[in-house]
Amino acid sequence: xxxxxxxxxxxxxxxxxxxxxxxxxxxxxxxxxxxxxxxxxxxxxxxxxxxxxxxxxxxxxxxxxxxxxxxxxxxxxxxxxxxxxxxxxxxxxxxxxxxxxxxxxxxxxxxxxxxxxxxxxxxxxxxxxxxxxxxxxxxxxxxxxxx
Length: 147
What we know:
four-stranded antiparallel sheet; Immunoglobulin-like; three-stranded antiparallel sheet; mainly beta; elongated
């Protein structure tokens, strides 16, 4: 009888593999807009919400200050990048296990042309970066009065 070994992969492994694969075909841009060979080590979890008047992006970046983060908008692409450093233990300690990601990250979001780029705002509170991207008046739903 032949033994079959089954390798299980979790969703995080699959997402990283897909990100790595697509990263080969469309390298990310760094903050000055040039193509960058610098690879992201991790990607913060995020939520994308849509309301009647805006899109809201929330990224989990605990352990970072707002000075560690960079947000850029160019050609309908919103990019968020930053770097979380690894806290070194003292001389009398060493890591036994490390599960918190650290290093450079880069997330890019292609936005519709119907956003108000001048109105984009960002806030940072309790480890969550929230970016509000307002829609232009042209795309907001409106009720038409029947004459």
